[in-house]
Amino acid sequence: MLVYPSGIDLSSRTLRHLSGFLAGHRRRIGSRWRRLTCGRQAMLVLAQRCGDTYARLAAGFRIGIVTAYRYIREAVDLPAALAPTLEQAMTTVRMKAYVILDGTVLSIDRIAADRPYYSVKKKYHRMNVQVLADPAGRLIWASDALPGATRDLTAVRVHGIPAALAADDIKCWAGKAYQGADPAILCPDRGEHLRGWRRRHNRDHAKIRSLGERAMAILKSWRFLRKHRCSTTRITAVVRAVLALELAT
Predict the structure, then answer these.
(1) Of 123, 125, 177, 133, whose CA–CA distance to 153 is shortest?
(2) Is the pLDDT of residue 2 over 70?
(3) What is the spatial distance between Cα 70 and Cα 173, in angstroms, rounded to a whole number?
(4) What is the pTM of this model?
(5) What is the dihedral angle through the alpha carbons of 70, 76, 82, 86, rounded to the nearest 10 degrees?
(6) pLDDT tens digit string along 147-197?
């Protein structure tokens, strides 16, 4: 097998932060010896960010495939448990002038029979995740993943986002897909040939919403979120772990 050095486009601060999680966890459970140190286990998880398979990761770190899977699962669950819930995120949201709501889709490896995960619009299997960002485009909160056939409007209602925003009278800017969700969620006007103030309104609305694309870019910079090979039941934990690491660093 040929090997070569590679780089991960993350700061060493993220590595140290995840290593600290793992060190504390090993002390709590009384783990005395592992094939990988806390730093190497953290590096294994961050290396998966590049989208490598478990087989390639196991070979690179000189461990078994089952061990690689177990180490990665353990290191994902620890920060995922610390990701803020929607209620906790509202504490941060209340200090902002407004928030930006948007949805993103995560491509997954499913068979054609998995209809709940198939998006007719995108023509591939996916999971639906809703994201709240601050006016500067920084991540505040990410929802649990729902099957890709779920529309954005349905997803925000399932997660209770309109009710949470309305309870604190928080202004929220969102796209056309969210029209009718709640008066607290501001959406652009529909129509192909808008004129006058309606056209200016949509243009200004788009400028504000465009900042939310930065939050999406941060989320998608974790490459394994672009094409998931794991079980759909694990995607929520992975998204929450990424959110926790981004908020901490």
Answers:
(1) 177
(2) no
(3) 40
(4) 0.83
(5) -120
(6) 878 889 999 999 999 999 988 889 999 988 898 888 888 888 777 776 777
